Structure formats: C-alpha cells, structure tokens
From TrEMBL:
Pathway: Purine metabolism; purine nucleoside salvage. The purine nucleoside phosphorylases catalyze the phosphorolytic breakdown of the N-glycosidic bond in the beta-(deoxy)ribonucleoside molecules, with the formation of the corresponding free purine bases and pentose-1-phosphate. This is Purine nucleoside phosphorylase. It holds the Pfam family PNP_UDP_1. Belongs to the PNP/MTAP phosphorylase family. Residues 22-269 form the Nucleoside phosphorylase domain. Its EC number is 2.4.2.1.
Amino acid sequence: MRRKQLNESVAYLKEKGFDNPEIGIVLGTGLGKLADEIENPIEAHYNHIPFFPLATVEFHAGKLIFGSFEGKKVVVMQGRFHLYEGYDFTDITYPIWVMHQLGIQKLFISNAAGAINLDYKKGDIMLIEDHINLQGGSPLAFKNVAEFGHRFADMSEPYDIEMRKKIEKIAKNENISLQKGVYASVVGPQLETKAEYRMLKILGADAVGMSTVPEVIVANHLDLPIVAISVLTDECNPDQLKPVDIQDIINVASATEPKMVKLFRELIRSL
C-alpha cells in the first residue's frame, strides 16, 4: 500500500469536513439504517474518494458518512467491500486505514451471518468474541506494512474486552437477547454445502459470514480497539438444509437492526 494514496484519500475527506472522528462504524449487509440517525451528516460517495474501491453489491449503499451520533463524532461506512467482489485484501480494508488516519480511536463492526451453532436462531444477535480466518490470506501481507503498524500483529484478544463487557451489560439492561461466539469468515459469494457447515461446526465456529475478519486484523495491526456484532439471518442446519433466499436474509437483518443500533447507541453513550 502506498502512503501517498492514503494521504490523498484522507486529504479529500478532510476538505469535505470529516473533522477528527472519534469512532468508526462499519455497517454490514442489510444494516444501513443507523446512518439515517447521524446528525449534521456529510456524505462522501466511494466513487468520489481518491483510490477508494467501489461497492459492487446491490444492497450496499457505497458511501462514507461523517457526523454526530450520541454526542460523538463518527464516520460510518454504509456498504463494505468483500473478496468475492474481485477485490484483494488491501482493497477491502483500505477504508479502515483511511478512518484510522482521520483519527478514529475505536471501531464498531456489524455483519449479517449464518448461525452454525444450532442453539442460536434466525434474528438473534451475536457478540463476536473470537474468529477463524478461512479467507486464505492476510491484509498485512505486503512489503511495507511495517510503515503503518505491527507486521506481526498480536491476535490473542482481537475484540476489545472492555467494550464487550459494556455491550453485555447494555443488552441485559435493555432486555435484548445476546448470544456470544466465534465468527468464521469465508470467501463466498456462494453459500456453504452441508459438508462445509459440518466442518465449520467441528472447527468451533458459531456463525459464518464473508467479511469482518480482514478489517479486524488491520484494526489490531493499528492498535485500534474493536467491537463486532453479527446479526444471525439464517440457521445453517446441515440435516435440514433448504435453499437460502438472499432477500430473506436482507429482511431478517433489517428487522433485527434496531436492536443492533440500540446496542451501538448505548455503547457510544457510555464511552
């Protein structure tokens, strides 16, 4: 990755008014409504930001939004990037580097995922405690990575313990059912076979998706505390597997999103 490109992206956003955001938020599939609650929003479409990738997935909006949320300055990614779109690891994590350069001190991530743990149900929210990288690579595998942070990033506790505890307390106070578990990240875009779901369960995954882990690796590389939530949109039971309707996944994510927004809202208020 070239620092010159990163500097140009950041300079463009600062010129538009992206002024020292404190918190970065990545919104996953079907989870874009939080952006509607940003006060005094300033928008930058991905196709206008120098060196930014373009969102190619039809249900991802494709813009950065800066503004206030619960009294904190935030920058929100409405639409993320995935390996399955043909991008590489540097492309899909580029916004994390940019948000870090803008000044964020914490990173919130959301995604839609399938429930591998059959005790978890469609519409549940899962707080990610750990992950399994099954994407076959690393966003830190480039020559000059040491210019930006730790080449050998420690991943012994990739998700911030303090923010996780706060999320658990908020969920309890708000009567929001909160699962906890391990998220496995695969390439996609095809969904898994019965045998693959069985494999994921054996590996120790509670949920599976096609994002998040690369962003988390980069955030750890940059010493950026992270909290991540999965909205579980389908149940991956290999013994009763039925074809998945992507629109149904979007609908479940949208219906569950208010709970996720509530958790993020109260966590930001507590910081």
